Amino acid sequence: MNITSFEQLGLPIDMVNKLSEFEINEPSPVQAEVIPAVLQGSDVLAHSQTGTGKTLAYLLPILQGINPELKTIQKMILAPTQELAMQIVRESERYGLHKGIRVLGLIGGAAMKRQVEKLKLHPQLVVGTPGRIKELVEMRKIKMHTVTTIVVDEVDQVFDLGSGGDVERIIRSAARDRQLVFLSATVSKQTAALVKKEMKQPIEVGIEPEQMTAKGLEHLYFVSQERDKPDTLRRLIRHYNPQKVIVFVNATKDIAEVEAKMNHLGLSTQALYGDADKMARSGVLERFRNGKFKVLVASDLAARGLDIEGLTMVVNYDPPIDSEHYVHRAGRTGRMGRTGIVLSIVTDRQTFIMKKFTQELRTPIGLRTMFGGKVIEPGDEILTSRAPYVSPREEATSYRKGDESRKRLDVDKGTQRKEVTSERNRRSVDSPVIAKRAEPTQTTEVTQPSSATPSQSVEVSRKSNRPSTGASKSERERIRKNKGAPKWLKNKPPRS
């Protein structure tokens, strides 16, 4: 299908002009397939990689199908997480308010009483999480017989979070002739089973690219010891210096630790928890969008479906559990044809995971290493067939400022020590001869101190401290004790 404009898809001119305001002038491949199918009222199963415009693919046609004059809920959108649901609410208001369409977000964690009050304002479109929508349906606060279209976004994630049962109950409470639209980056067995069970002759839209992730993304991984991962993360962020970055951690219990370490290392960081209340999560995301801090640490659940403007970098602090999760993480950046970079930090034993993802996703994930503050690519002189691992501590020691000058100084000192040692050895060999020659002079100079010059006196003091071969045992002992003493003490006569 050779579609070059939204008008050709059947959207009205006012909607096309609204899209132009946000510099969206041509439909993406998934939009070109899904929009006509939804407009004609067919059930649709669409699966495409993240960041290809799936949200607008279903949102634009269902907004077009709403009658603002009717004071009933006509369309419903279900999303797996609170953040994704509120994101869809914002998009719906952006493209629907000029038509007079009222949109209401219904998510868990918010006050039920307040939501019930807002339902009395008769919204035509509701967007929410399956659990909260199901509660309101069972309370008979939402009348499902008026709902003509139900959209389930990120349907695979809905099942992963255990909300599949809630979705099924919501669908069964609606009219039999309702329209179903399922969208996801991948299609699991549970999704396929629900499609077969609930949909009627669905139109399947599968945009299968040469690779599962966006083309504008660069994928790299770095090998690090587990204890060095915080410093490796810090160095990578300092090197690439993105405006915003999301750091993915597998376990929720590790989020606070990573957040604290990044702040300690000088990077402004906050955490996004999946189990935090609505106000706390909304506040963190709002500050992140406004650039109040640089690094957002989150789990897969908390960041699912997020669309952050200006996000150019994603870091897997822990490797994803499978290639599907890798796709969803990578999809937070490089959206709608933009560029981005996805970095993964793995231990030596986890390198096989990156090779596995390369094969499964048909996406090259290159091995790199950091040395001297630079990212070294294969083919450089330092690299062999496999990039050597250099720990941050070793690198810091090797490249600490002034290292080379200290090394040269140590060499000079070593040379000087060798020269001094050689001179001492020479003197020790020659000392008996010198002592014998000095004996007559020493006796003469001592008996006639009045006629000695200052230089001669110093010479006398030096020679008197040398143990001669004929000196008595007590004299040698005195000289040994006086060794290293000041001149005035050496010249002091012994006690009688």
From TrEMBL:
DEAD-box RNA helicase Q domain residues: 4-32
Region of interest: Disordered: 386-496
Cross-referenced PANTHER family: ATP-DEPENDENT RNA HELICASE YFML-RELATED (PTHR47963:SF7), DEAD-BOX ATP-DEPENDENT RNA HELICASE 47, MITOCHONDRIAL (PTHR47963)
This protein's name: DEAD/DEAH box helicase
UniProt keyword Hydrolase, yes or no: yes
One Gene Ontology molecular-function label: hydrolase activity
GO terms for biological process, alphabetical: response to cold
Keywords: ATP-binding, Helicase, Hydrolase, Nucleotide-binding
The organism of origin for this protein: Paenibacillus glacialis
UniProt keyword Magnesium present: no
Motif (Q motif): 4-32
Compositionally biased spans, kind Basic and acidic residues: 392-429
Polar residues compositional bias, start-end: 440-459
SUPFAM superfamilies (UniProt xref): P-loop containing nucleoside triphosphate hydrolases
